[in-house]
Amino acid sequence: MAEEPIRIVLAADDDYAFPLAASVRSIVDNANRERPLEVVVLSCGISAESKRRLSASWDAGASGLVRFLDVDVSSLSAWPTSSPFLSHPTSATYARLLLPQLLPDWDKVIYLDVDTITLSPFDDLWDLDLHGLPLGAVIDPFNPSIGSPRGVQCWEEAGLDPGAPYFNAGMLVINLAVWRRDQIAAKALAYVEEHAACIGLLDQEALNAVVNGEFLAVDESWNMTDIRFGAPHPAASEIPAISEAALRGPRVRHFTGKRKPWKTGYLIPDAADLFFSYADRTAWAGRRAGAE
């Protein structure tokens, strides 16, 4: 019997084609060659030309491993994309809530934001037992609980436990079977609609509200955000410490915040170097911050 592949999905629109190219390149370059891998890119309006360049970016060592799945962007346009906490909001973020219906034959998937660089095979993460929970994720170091300042904004109105753990949704191990059974995605979208006036971090916030702390907390190395590497923030001193060993061994780097390595004004040189080391293995080789 063939071994089940590790299944990974990302979602992007055409504006994010460049970071998408680098992100998928890093997944492929660091994959375990002894284990099957499937990567699906949810295309939320990626142009034919960008798809051509993206495919060319991944062909080396990834032939047949990566495929596009077009998403009807009109189905996403009804949901809010403005946020006081986000500088690059896009309706593509809601595409992950369509995964149970877009991938009906899959019962499990790893979801990644496109502003990530992978530095490790995903075997250990994929093999985690979710114990029947809807997802596994990293507790947000800056907003560790639902009642945190950038946690669930309407937690009291929604009747949630403010002390329940809150996750960053940039990396999720999703139990699609449980999502279908418990209608997690539908409940999240209903939450967005009901609380549109006060929601902060869009579907991340909605998923946290629906799950209400009932998720598997995984090691922070699987979603190491910029705040851990010196990204400026007025409340950085309040973030719980992390070991030097963990800082030296991130498995997924996540470029959170308003500044990104491919944009001007990014302030973490080693992270920018890391991003461009993979971007230079794509059809965008040589492009640097601020280039169109």
From TrEMBL:
- CDD domains referenced in this protein's UniProt entry, alphabetically: GT8_A4GalT_like
What UniProt keywords are attached to this protein's entry? Glycosyltransferase, Metal-binding, Transferase
Q: Which domain of life is it from?
A: Bacteria
Decide whether keyword Transferase is in the record: yes
Q: Cite the GO molecular-function annotations of the record.
A: glycosyltransferase activity; metal ion binding
Q: Which InterPro entries match?
A: Glyco_trans_8, Glycosyltrans_8_dom-fam, Nucleotide-diphossugar_trans
Pfam families the UniProt entry points to: Glyco_transf_8 (PF01501)
Please identify the protein, giving its name as recorded. Glycosyl transferase
